[in-house]
Specification:
Length: 398
């Protein structure tokens, strides 16, 4: 599928399937920032979303005394993250540098969905849609039982977390990522599923509704903790491995003379460290939202809001209204999550380091010495057993 590329030499049509190690005319490692892969399939939805949300925020601002500035800029920050990932030279460079590709994935599945859902966009977006479209399109869609059931299932904490983590692991498999670099349809599917999985995951995490209407804050913390821990083994394995796995970047040509193994190690660090740091930032933001929800419930209780003992649904609010218990959980969660993540990183790093060292030792034993001419040397053992020779070699390595 061809796409429009705007570069310093004019506008060209290029097919991503035809990219090889020599590159495509108009796209060069010497001037990568001169190429902007602008696409109507991305720009039009972004502009529509920005216009609808902005219009909705203005209408809500006229009816409410509260400030909508943070909400406005948070949502548009998410749109900017999508733009940076797909419509800037970053998209072009990502097809030739593994580390940059992982940065693009972090924008799509992490930063952009987190900012979009943090803005609680449903209300302003619906309010910003023209009334005719709202009545003819949105109303039937949002009230459809099947649509509501499917969305409710996909945003369940366990389901959303499995989809979010599973999408990362599937597309990180070398066989799929290598193929996606030469198949534009598959590459497009990769980006769409990453963005959708992020939106499904962060939708319940930053839902402004407290329990029982929304997911309890304890479950939201567990979701974020699972996502953070999922980054650790994957990022550590890619960082500490000793072989090149993503060979498609070499076939297309790694730009700027980057060493393949070093490129993949930096990409692994992005998954391991940067993605985990983004998860910790989400934890802190969730803690702030938890505190705001707790404050509002305390305010309602002081004004005389009571919970009927016979109403099982409203009775669930008791856990949110119990200020002392909630605050203890707040502090405990805030203290334990970074500690658990740090411990997981250390344990995984130690295990992989020992495993790699053992593999190198065995490889050193099995590999015969090489002469200066490049040919294996024949060693006269003089009757020394193989066990003794292996012990001496290991002793020298130590």
């Amino acid at each position: 599928m061809p796409k429009t590329v705007h570069g310093a030499h004019g506008t060209t049509r290029e097919n991503t399937m035809s990219h090889g190690t020599t590159g495509t005319p108009g796209i060069s490692a010497l001037a990568p920032f001169a190429t902007w892969p602008l696409s109507a399939s991305v720009m039009v939805p972004l502009l529509i979303a920005a216009m609808c949300f902005g219009r909705g925020v203005m209408q809500m601002r006229a009816k409410s005394t509260g400030s909508q500035h943070v909400r406005y800029w948070t949502f548009h920050g998410g749109l900017v993250a999508i733009f940076l990932a797909l419509q800037t030279p970053l998209d072009v460079i990502s097809e030739h540098v593994f580390a940059v590709h992982q940065l693009q994935h972090l924008l799509l599945r992490g930063i952009a969905p987190m900012l979009l859902m943090l803005a609680a966009p449903a209300g302003p977006f619906i309010a910003g849609v023209p009334q005719a479209l709202r009545r003819m399109l949105l109303a039937p869609l949002l009230t459809d039982k099947t649509v509501r059931a499917v969305f409710g299932f996909l945003t369940r904490p366990l389901v959303a977390t499995l989809i979010y983590i599973g999408t990362l692991y599937v597309w990180q498999m070398p066989v799929y990522q290598n193929r996606a670099l030469f198949d534009e349809s598959l590459h497009y599917l990769m980006h769409v599923t990453m963005l959708l999985s992020g939106l499904l995951f962060f939708s319940p995490v930053f839902d402004p509704r407290p329990a029982p209407w929304g997911v309890s804050f304890n479950k939201r913390l567990v979701m974020l903790g699972a996502a953070i821990f999922a980054n650790i083994p994957l990022g550590a394995i890619i960082t500490l491995k000793a072989t090149v796995l993503y060979t498609a970047y070499d076939q297309r040509g790694r730009w700027w003379g980057i060493v393949p193994l070093s490129d993949e190690q930096v990409g692994g660090l992005i998954i391991w460290v940067l993605a985990s740091m983004m998860g910790l930032l989400a934890v802190l933001l969730l803690m702030g939202r938890w505190h705001q929800s707790e404050t509002k419930l305390d305010e309602r209780r002081r004004r005389g809001f009571t919970i009927s003992p016979g109403n099982a649904t409203l009775a669930n609010l008791a856990g949110e209204v119990a200020t002392s218990v909630t605050r203890r959980r707040f502090g405990l969660g805030l203290a334990c999550v970074p500690l658990m993540v740090f411990t997981g990183v250390i344990v995984m790093a130690v295990w992989l380091t020992r495993h790699t060292r053992t593999s190198l030792r065995l490889a050193a034993v099995d590999t015969p010495p090489i002469s200066t001419t490049g040919h294996p040397l024949t060693i006269d053992t003089g009757g020394v057993s193989s066990i003794t020779r292996t012990g001496r070699v290991l002793g020298q390595i130590k």
